[in-house]
Amino acid sequence: MGVRMKPHTKKYLALSLILAACLLAFAAAGGQGRAQSAATLDTSAAEARETHGALHILDKEGKPAGLCPLKHTDVRADISGFITRVTVTQEFANPSQEKIEAVYTFPLSANAAVDDMVMVVGGRTIRGDIKKKQEALEIYEQAKAAGHVASLLDQERPNIFTQSVANIMPGESVKITISYVEYLDYEDGSYSFVFPMVVGPRFMPGAGAAGSKTGAPDASRISPPVTPEGARAGHDISVSVAIDAGMPLGDITSELHKVDIKKSGNAKATVTLAGGKTIPNKDFVLKYKVVGKDIQDAFLTHAREDGSGFFTLFMAPPERVTQKQIAPKEMIFVIDTSGSMNGWPVEKAKETMKYAIRNMNPNDTFNLIGFSSSVQPLFDRAQPNTDANREKAERYLGDMMGRGGTYMMSAMDAALAPAPDPERVRIVCFMTDGYVGNDFEIISYIQNNLGGARLFSFGIGNSVNRFLLDEMAKYGRGEVEYVLLDAQGKGAAERFHERIANPVLTDIRIDWGGLSVSDTYPAAVPDMFSNKPVIITGRYSGKAQGTITITGKTGAKKFERKIKATLPARNPGHDVLAPLWARKRIADLLARDYLGAQRGQPDAGIEEQITGLGLEYRLVTQYTSFVAVEERIVTQGGVPTTVAVPVEMPDGVSYEGIFGEGGRFQTQAYGATTASLSSAPAVGARSVSPSLKKDKASPMAPPAPYPAKESEKTQNPSAPNPMDKLAAPLQGLASKVWNEGVNGDWVSDQVTVTAWLVRISIQVDPLTADNLAALEALGLSVESKAGGTITGALDARKLADLVRFDFVKKVEPLK
Questions:
Q1: pTM of whole model > 0.85?
Q2: End-to-end Cα separation, the chain, in angstroms
Q3: Which of 670, 30, 763 has its CA nearest to residue 342?
């Protein structure tokens, strides 16, 4: 049987066939352990009562061409100061003649503390329970099998979630309301609120052939089906933002959407989408300024009845100090030229990159690396900043096009692996949309291989993977910049050069003045490259008063600021500080085990801690989920047919770049589908009807990445790994200090790190004056040298650079 649709002209026959294939794929969709065989949905009854906003994929003429069980999403944000509470209501409905299970993969802010879920069905309200992920799945599956209406909310990534709703009866609807809190961003006098609306198509390194290894074993869980070109999904979205700035409001602007603004007094306003709703295919980006004084320091607290306390310290940025002398740098420019960047995104990246290259300092050196299915550097090593070399770079940029896969790990290795220039700090400028499935793996690589470099990420596009880009900059000890497709690339490039030339505040340290605070995040306060505040959240025990002292450097000058703090024994206000702290704690724990989480083999201790926090604070995490069951009503009709909600192609992203010319598949490694691009489901994948596996284009054989990475290409076992020169206690040390230390201090049984410095013994062959000078230029403070051994102290973040010297043979810790 086929899906019954309204008659179409011959002109749209091909589209109808594609859509029919989509519906079979949707029907085959399901979660782990709950795959369903494809089944036919009779939509004729729905067509007979068709109204505006009906739940269908719509073709080019606006006619229904397939079932879409999500009707509408409503977003309401309440902003108070620098914290916002966001409520997201998803309305699912069933216009078919059979009961269904709806599965919707959608984005939220990567920093969201998702602390509530409510299901409304048949006039009854059921509040979701937070459970261990597997337990929640079992409850949901049992309820589905028993005929109860049930809902399940899973986190796939910190910014990707899956909502499943089982047993929606014909003609009935179910509303799911999700709530979360997060901090607002603030930079250069503007607050910003961002709500992502669509999950972009993810590239899955290593995917394609049956049984092949992929860097994303859960690929199917982060790859919702994309509405075919020329059609649109039947669901829309509305957004309303209530601002209570606490001081007079200045300009309010929406970067990508037309909005209506209504002010109430001088400090409050309500912002809504013009026309009430829109297609969810790009981020909602709202910015506003306040009039008068700059932002002020603040110290907020919340204390529970049991005496446990939470706080948030908010320190306004100091004035930027312009330095007279700019240190020379080794500039590594990396640009994503994969298929998802095809067209407008890659042109915007090239425009931005051109300005960044033109504005280097005279004594800088540079290289330009393009990557997609292979990595292609312009030079074999960084070259001087000359007119001729810049001209070569601009010609190289001009020839770039968006096509192929996104082998980002190989590009990262090409940027960070070469031996460092002892006379220059390496600055990596990395431009991408972040559309990859192995994002945890990439961040883990940066944590362990950054060395003394700094990485600045640029998100190019209107709905990029902000989680990956934020974390790249965080663990790259740099800054992130988002370049929207209608923005000026020149401005982004100028801000980049201002940041690397004149950081706002560096070497930041905090003296808590004897206050009984603990579990503060971030544990090590990163350098401030922009006019952004320092935000630190933590816990405290016991009533106290004191003065917090923050020190650092602004240019060559010392900086110090004192903030008075009161820790009350009881304070029921600001209760959102508890889940906000827990969310930061969870993010910190997950970051210690990104590779394990990526491979589906998490560290048991870390998983247990995250699970405990999720259960205690009612938070959705990688290992906890919300589940709700309507137990009073039992639906009839057997097992529901599973239907995946189709999503829009992100604004500015090319169908040709993702699926190839004419809709043919460019590569099977892209998880996004209009039919199905995966030959074999990964663990937990949704099944694909065998009929969809016929007549597919063969997967494009990608050129060998440079150099091969484990999850992208089988590694050469004979190739030596420089990191093997480090004794076991020193491997991954920088990541341990970052994640577990305080202000660069960290101690274990075998290693002591003080202010990032670790004492080491280095075996060198040969020990020459030139080699010794190279080590000192790297930052080694030499204590002694005898025979082929040098002892001294080095910044732990530079160990990865140290072992890349060929003359360095072994590095061991000294107590």
A1: no
A2: 74
A3: 670
Cβ-based neighbour number of residue 493 at 10 Å: 23
Cα dihedral across residues 553, 554, 556, 558: positive or negative: negative
Q: What is the 3-state secondary structure (H, E, C) of 745-762?
A: EEECCCCEEECCEEEEEE
Count other C-beta atoms under 10 Å from residue 765's C-beta: 12
Radius of gyration of the chain (CA): 27
Contact criterion met (CB below 8 Å) for 429 and 403: no
Residues 348 and 143: their CA atoms lie apart, in Å, by 49
Tokens 């990859």 sit at which residue? 436
CA distance 657 to 229: 12
**DSSP label at residue 43:** -
Pairing of β 70-80 and β 236-244: parallel
Residues 6 or more apart whose Cβ sits within 8 Å of residue 769: none
Which DSSP category does 513 fall into? T
> What is the residue type of 17?
L
The token duo for 238 is 């509305």
Quick: pLDDT tens for 592-612.
Answer: 999 999 989 999 999 999 999
Half-sphere exposure of 46 (CA within 13 A, CB side): 30
Neighbours of 4 (CB within 10 A): 11
Helix (H, G, I), strand (E, B) or coil at 74: strand
* 379, amino acid identity: F
| Contact status, residue 758 vs residue 794, Cβ threshold 8 Å | yes
Between 571 and 660, whose confidence is greater? 571
Tokens matching residue 387: 């007119």
Interatomic CA distance for residues 508 and 743, integer angstroms:
8
* Cα 341 from Cα 279, distance rounded (Å): 21
Q: Token pair 């599973």 is at which residue?
A: 642
Mean pLDDT of 138-158: 96
Contact between 168 and 174 (Cβ < 8 Å): yes
Burial level of 471, CB count in 10 A (0-12/13-18/19+)?
Answer: buried
Mean pLDDT computed over every residue of the chain: 83
Pairing, β 298-303 against β 308-315:
antiparallel
Label residue 10 by pLDDT band (50, 70, 90): very low
Q: Give the strand pairing for 56-58 and 64-67.
A: antiparallel
Structure tokens that stand for 521 in this block: 């995040």
Torsion of CA 560, 561, 562, 565, to 10 degrees: -130
